[in-house]
Fold each of these.
Amino acid sequence: MKNLPRRFVVRIVSRASLMIFVALALMLVPRVALAHAVLIQSSPAIDATMPGPDIAVSMKFSSRVDGARSTMLLSTSDGQSKPLTIERQNAPDTLTTQLTHLSPGKYSIRWQVLATDGHVTRGEIPFHVK
Ligand SMILES: [Cu+2]
């Protein structure tokens, strides 16, 4: 059998390597999706009743989060909301803040975090103060 022209061989090899590259890229997709920051534990817990007036808030996520590019808001049952100051991070997957002077009632912490994979996730933690 005659040898294949060199140009043809190069084309086959580059197509094969492209397919391998695409296959590897597809295998990586679920891994990237898993790196989203999902809230896995919080204090207050969702729908918890807490003694006031001061509450230390802690949120633990499934991946590292960038506290400087994340936000937390406290909303009250009368529809008002105020930004909370996120404290300097002691752990890369955890954000903390302090709530002070809360009177009894319904509240909610609305959070938005930036994970180190560049994706933003958000959620809400409703809770009661007794
Ligand atoms: Cu992600």
Amino acid sequence: MTVEAMVEPESGAIGVDRLLAAGPDARWAQHATRFGALDAAAAAPTLLAELEASGLGGRGGAGFAAWRKLAATLEAGRRPGARPVVIANGSEGEPLSHKDATLLRHAPHLVIDGLLAAAAAVGASDAYLYAAEPGLEAVRAAAAERADAARIRFVAAPDAFIAGQATAVVNAIENGVALPRDHTRRLSESGLRGRPTLLHNVETLAQLALVARYGAAWFRAVGTADDPGTRLVTIAGDVALPQVLEVAGGTRIAEVLRAAGADTSRLAAVLVGGYHGAWLPADALDAPLSPAGLAPFGAHPGAGVLLALDRTRCGVEATAGIVSYLAAQSARQCGPCRFGLPALAETWNRLAYASHDSGLAARAWELTDTVDGRGACAHPDGTARMVRSAQRVFADDLRLHAHGGCARAAR
Ligand code: SF4
């Protein structure tokens, strides 16, 4: 399923207006009125400690603690001649996600503030912003409104799922090819042209800008102890109003879905975290949308995507469509992507639409194990995670499909 129509952000509906508090399409005047100017150099000496105390986790997918990446880059930057680099990643290759595009359009100055604050904190001489158009256009226009953003370089991201993987971002900036590469050293040690590189998602940097301004205690005043602050969430699929919402950390999934007009009593499952995320069954929707709340289900908020699946839809068909997409999006540089993912997609499509063969489910398990952990990047692993969750959540449907039926017909 794709998101055909996204309505404007409804910030404040169930959370707190923070990232989007300057209002729609905020330019410098609205930004300065709401937040004031941020003195990046003045914030630099205390930023690392404030970030650590804030508990801010990355908002791009993996959710690493923001302070750890900053600390590692700072440390590597002490090497003689190291010249650290900071990159803001707003490429959002995940087709279900619209939160970074929304942020870049409505709060570009907050992203610029975060990028410049992070650059000042690690002593970076270069700062890049990597995003797809038209998000890039919005930030370019915002940068033109202020003198301190003149040194930011803008790089266009192609519209491809893997273009947002960390090493693909570095490759794209380095040589114009947005493909992941084999990577044995951390980017913080050796990233862009071998320099210590701090790469953060644009929402992470916008949140960092708030921490730099107001401090850790302010940041923690919203959300829960284990999921402080707010996060942007894209709600898609079978909801009345697909949209991007800013919600308080730890908000229950059902509550977020209802805010987008979903009738949660009609849902069969929800895909959490996007195409590399995990399916959750309908009876798990009271779980908080937080790393700790989702851990028991093998899930993670990822880039903040919720895809609702109505009980009249078939989870096996939905999963087959996603696996087909992911197989087509691979760079086909490594074995699991050249052979494993296409075979997995073919098996899921046969499970969904064609053969009534009880051996297919076992074949799908086997292929999933084969691709997991074998690629140069996390694309096969993310696909395997999503597929395993489908095998758990849609186990009854898979059994029926194997014998020529579909549970959807009975609902
Ligand atoms: S695992 Fe797949 S997507 Fe990742 S680098 Fe290898 S071929 Fe490319």
Amino acid sequence: MMTVTSMALSVSHLTPHIGTRIDSDGETLLSGRHAQEIRALLETRSVLVFPEIGFDDEQQIAFTRSLGALAYDYNGVPMVNGEQQAIFKVSLDEKVSPTARSLKNSLLWHLDGTTHDVPILASVLTARHLAPAGGETEWCSTYAAYEALPDEDKRALEGLRAVHSNLQLQRNINPELSYADFRRARGGPSKSQPLVWTHRNGRKSLVVGATAAYVEGMPHDDSLELLVRLRDWATQPQFVYRHEWKIGDMVIWDNTGTLHRALPYAPDSGRLMHRSMLAGEEPFA
Ligand SMILES: [Fe+2]
């Protein structure tokens, strides 16, 4: 593991393609002095880990803000007492989180915001309570996965688009929806996105995962086969970083160049993550 110390930031890469550990102190991180460097690392390394930094909500919000604009009320984050919340409590326990049921999708590889024009740029998670078993988080680099595709696949993907939908998410949770629930889910958001996202920085990433329902203009099974093949390709071990949480760990990831998922854990295990988000800055293209 190569460690490079630049002023107060000590940076170590966790795998060749994805994941970098940053050892610093809370005061230095909150000063904003390294914001540019952190943003640059976020883009090139996709996942940044701040081990046991132990931020409270206020500090987490301040840190998030130091890197860009906070995203509020994204993907149905509920209001509390009529106020938008910068911190969302991620829990599979319905007693803790009103959206616990839909979080079952968090166990499937996905990126956030595929039914929006502009997805969130990044999410920040801090670990408050851990499950005794399971609950690790995994990310894969969809930049590295695209880059490693054979040229003929890259050519074949040019111009292809997939529809991402709320209906697909609801069917992931319950493949046998009642007709009434099906109609309700179908009324939810749905959007066509390119399978390959050409970012403003010139890099390309794959846009696949559990929100993708079908590839436009393809027979049903061929469309599914392509989505499964690309998801399988993108989530190969060499593109993945798995984080085993300790209380107080904070991780930020670039939502636009990754897929993520949590590994299974018991809903009543007490596992609790506090999430804040950076508003998107770039539409899918
Ligand atoms: Fe997510």
